[in-house]
Design brief:
Layout: E1 8-11, H1 12-17, H2 19-26, E2 31-35, E3 38-43, H3 46-71
Parallel strand pairs: 1-2
Antiparallel strand pairs: 2-3
Length: about 80
Amino acid sequence: MEQILSSYSASISELKKNPSALLNKAEGEAIAILNHNSPTAYLVPADVYEQLLEKLEDYELGKLVKERQAEKPLAIEVSLDDL
């Protein structure tokens, strides 16, 4: 059985019946949507999803900074007057 990464869970049938009630019950937390007792999706509030995307973007930018820092020894220094 797969691990359920949420405090709240519901079957697909429950989701179809009354999605608003599920969201209210979870009080802003993610809801694991189960199919045959295995998580098939997670339902998250819009603001939580936006926060996740921002964190992912920050992580990707951090990786880019580290990659560019590793390239610094290869850089050629110039003064602004030379430009």
